[in-house]
Design goal:
alpha+beta; 6-stranded antiparallel beta sheet; 3-stranded antiparallel beta sheet
Length: about 170
């Protein structure tokens, strides 16, 4: 008596082979669908960069007002609150405001966006409008968020603009 050690299944009819392949394929597909959120959270936890989002800020004169050029760099799809600060020339915090809602950020966002001063601070609260300081200042922003699937939390460091002197003549 010989023992068949072959890993292959004994050959049956063509219909049996097709049914077996169909059942295994559908089963594997359903399993992947059920495990997708878990796989995505695991992927975020172990492969997402430490700081998946960063912003570059530049202040400029916009007619008789201050304008803000905001460029966001996103390495990974995330949802985040952003926290903005106004700091004086000595780097003392004048004002801190936090966004009221979580924003979604994805790689491939537009490169740079110009904002009016008032529009930049509108999202933060129902407090009165924030006025630009009359002395030299800078603005800073950081992000508190999670990956799209909630796999990991992150806090980024503050990124600040260059010191801006609002009294310089408009060019």
């Amino acid at each position: 008596m010989s023992v068949n050690w072959s890993p292959r299944r004994p050959k049956g009819s063509a219909r049996q082979n097709q049914n077996h392949t169909l059942i295994m394929g559908v089963g594997l597909f359903v399993l992947l669908l059920l495990l997708q959120p878990t796989i995505e959270r695991w992927h975020e936890r172990f492969f997402m960069p430490e700081h998946p989002i960063a912003a570059d800020l530049r202040l400029f004169h916009q007619r008789d007002r201050v304008g803000i050029e905001y460029t966001v760099k996103v390495d990974w799809p995330v949802r985040a609150f952003w926290v903005g600060q106004i700091r004086d020339a000595a780097d003392n915090v004048i004002l801190t405001r936090r966004a009221l809602k979580m924003w979604s950020y994805s790689p491939g966002l537009p490169k740079a966006k110009e904002w009016r001063w008032r529009a930049w601070w509108e999202d933060f609260s129902t407090n009165p409008t924030v006025l630009a300081p009359k002395e030299p200042f800078r603005i800073c922003v950081r992000y508190d968020g999670v990956g799209r699937r909630g796999g990991t939390d992150f806090d980024t460091p503050y990124r600040c603009s260059e010191l801006f002197d609002p009294t310089e003549a408009v060019q």
